[in-house]
Write a structure and sequence with these properties.
Shape: globular
CATH topology of one domain: Cytochrome p450
Number of helices: 15
Number of strands: 11
Strand order of the largest sheet: 1-7-4-2
CATH superfamily of one domain: Cytochrome P450
Helix content: 40-55%
CATH class of one domain: Mainly Alpha
Order of helices and strands: EHEHHHEHHHHHHHEEEEHHHHEEEE
Structural class: alpha+beta
Bound molecules: protoporphyrin IX containing FE
CATH architecture of one domain: Orthogonal Bundle
Distance between the termini: 60 Å
Length: 403
């Protein structure tokens, strides 16, 4: 088996749409990732994806942005802000975790701080499953920890959450509850399984854990990078910070530029199911591994200009190219949560009223923190995670400027 690595933007983009390339990034993390949406292929993938898209019912995004994010943000902030300092990574984990369990369909049981800390620990462990192929940790030890954590997640959180939803679904069937009163989450959609897709109990458990992970982990890391670039830029343009804090559309451009520079996984991996020729002229034989280098593609000077590797929120991007590059994937496995995390950018010249804006979780939180006056902690510099071949902030300490 050979490995073909693609880094040309157009070749990567086309490869991500290629139906004969099968997902291969998560093979090592099968304890959680086996037959979850992102590892399925062909018809099975298509029918599961269509089923899960039912979560985005009418008003889903409006409710998420105007009610769910603000409520959770305030709740978590109350635990941190009184200290006068905090770690953006830790804070991000907490906010994103609450958001992710809402979307996945997991209920907290007693709402205690201890329970919440346990969920953070579980999320970090599931994160190991998704990145095990790129991790420097002992694989067998990590797998044992992931298995034990999945069991704990099942008994403490998944089982009671599923039981509550089954009861609600039954009430809808009996006509004592309306469809609109059902929770808008993945677990509810999977338990209803209106399309009759092939799903057993273990698959529903893993899928829910996967959404818990997919919804939170990537966004935490993206928040760290976005805050870093924003604070860097503000340090260089101190007289423009106040204006940026109020200019939502511009701030969203900043965050999209940060997404482009830092895809949460620098690479996608695929296995060629048949001989395939790529746009850059390279070829893969059946069974070859194909590495799609998102990070490098997103820094292509031919697409993003001579300063492609630099942070430039005022960058002009060619028509048809997303400002976030390939960070959210494209084609078959394109991210289902992109609108949640990144919102939608208004078109050039389009004026969108405040109440209709869709900022996305990362820009929403980054803006709120900036408005609170966060500054890098001069005593403690942020540190990147050294245990993984991904560029992620392990800690990012900030202090609150008096306002
Ligand atoms: C900054 C945040 C995020 C980033 C950078 C991101 C990135 C990605 C990427 C690159 C893929 C494609 C993987 C591949 O092609 O192999 C993907 C797939 C996916 N993402 Fe996200 N994601 C983010 C947030 C979210 C959120 C908030 C959710 C859920 C609510 C989510 C749910 C999913 C799902 C379900 C898939 C699988 C889609 C499929 O296989 O059909 N993601 N994401």
């Amino acid at each position: 088996m050979n490995t073909v690595e693609l880094s040309d933007y157009r070749a990567c983009e086309k490869a991500l749409k290629e139906p004969h390339l099968k997902q291969a990034l998560y093979d090592e993390g099968a304890i959680v990732m086996d037959r979850v949406l992102v590892t399925l292929h062909g018809d099975e993938h298509r029918t599961r994806r269509l089923l899960e898209m039912r979560v985005f019912r009418r008003d889903f995004f409006r409710q998420h942005e105007q009610e769910v994010i603000p409520e959770i943000y305030e709740q978590v902030l109350a635990q941190f802000a009184s200290q006068g300092h905090m770690d953006v990574v830790d804070f991000g984990y907490r906010v994103m975790l609450y958001l992710a369990i809402r979307f996945a369909g997991i209920d907290t049981q007693d709402g205690s701080r201890e329970e919440f800390d346990d969920l953070v620990r579980m999320l970090r462990t599931f994160g190991l499953a998704a990145t095990l192929g790129q991790s420097k940790l002992d694989r067998e030890e990590a797998k044992a920890e992931i298995r034990a954590t999945l069991n704990e997640f099942e008994s403490r959180f998944f089982a009671p959450s599923a039981q509550r939803r089954r009861a609600l679904i039954e009430q809808v069937a009996e006509g004592t509850l309306t469809e609109d009163e059902l929770p808008m989450d993945v677990l509810t959609v999977l338990l209803r399984n209106e399309d009759g897709v092939d799903l057993d109990g273990d698959m529903v458990l893993r899928e829910t854990a996967f959404y818990f992970l997919a919804g939170a982990h990537t966004s935490v890391h993206s928040l760290g990078h976005a805050v870093h670039h924003l604070l860097d830029w503000c340090a260089e343009h101190p007289d423009q910070r106040k204006a940026l804090e109020q200019d939502t559309a511009r701030l969203q451009h900043f965050v999209h530029e940060s997404f482009r520079l830092h895809p949460s996984s620098p690479v996608s991996w695929r296995t060629a199911l048949q001989a395939t020729e790529f746009l850059d002229g390279q070829q893969a034989a059946q069974g070859d591994k194909v590495v799609i280098n998102l990070r490098q593609a997103n820094r292509s000077p031919e697409i993003f200009g001579a300063d492609a590797a630099a942070f430039n929120p005022d960058r002009q991007v060619p028509q048809g190219i997303d400002r976030t590059g390939l960070t959210f994937g494209i084609g078959i496995h394109s991210c289902l949560g992109k609108n949640l995390a990144a919102g939608t950018l208004p078109r050039e010249g389009q004026i969108v009223p405040e109440e209709k804006r869709q900022l996305g979780t990362v820009a929403w939180i980054a803006q709120a923190l900036l408005r609170l006056g966060i500054q890098r902690d001069p005593e403690q510099p942020g540190a990147l995670d050294q245990t993984i071949e991904r560029e992620t902030w392990q800690t990012y300490p900030v202090i609150f400027e008096a306002r």
